[in-house]
From TrEMBL:
CC per GO annotation: cytosol
Pfam families listed in its UniProt record: Ribonuc_L-PSP
InterPro entries hit by this protein: RidA (IPR006056), RutC-like_sf (IPR035959), YjgF/YER057c/UK114 (IPR006175)
PANTHER family, per database record: 2-IMINOBUTANOATE/2-IMINOPROPANOATE DEAMINASE RIDA (PTHR11803), ENDORIBONUCLEASE (PTHR11803:SF59)
Highest taxon, organism lineage: Bacteria
Originating species: Candidatus Oscillibacter excrementigallinarum
Phylogenetic placement of the source organism: Bacteria, Bacillati, Bacillota, Clostridia, Eubacteriales
Name of this chain's protein: RidA family protein
Length: 122
């Protein structure tokens, strides 16, 4: 097992890793829409979905994988009414249409509107 760590995605805000590579799979932690350069979060679901996708992509790249190798995602929304707007952005990144679960949760860390985690092959 190998810990994946990149400065191109936000660092963990708790006792966990950005991702692990094990047995040919890359498993990311949930990625909030935090800009890794300055810790800020953009406003609105579209901009936040875009940043979360960029963060997932940076981790996948650091692990030697990519969006085209993602087999499963789990997406969390603070408001299910954002589902369509979230999907519009998500579809631009996850073009291979991996298996997915997407649901609304009561709250996300830092008041984020979305969070994305992924499982990919190397």
């Amino acid at each position: 097992m190998n810990v994946i760590d990149t400065k191109n995605a936000p660092g963990a805000i708790g006792p966990y890793s950005q991702a692990y590579e094990a047995n040919g799979f890359v498993i990311t932690s949930g990625q909030l829409p935090v800009n890794p350069a300055d810790g800020s979060m953009p406003d609105g679901i579209a901009a936040q979905a875009d940043q979360s996708c960029k963060n997932v992509g940076a981790i996948l790249e650091a692990a030697g994988s990519g969006f085209d190798k993602v087999v499963k995602t789990t997406c969390f929304l603070a408001d299910i009414a954002d589902f369509a707007a979230f999907n519009e952005v998500y579809a631009k990144y996850f073009t291979s249409k991996p298996a997915r679960s997407c649901f609304a949760v009561k709250d996300l860390p830092k008041g984020a509107l979305c969070e994305i985690e992924a499982i990919a092959v190397k």
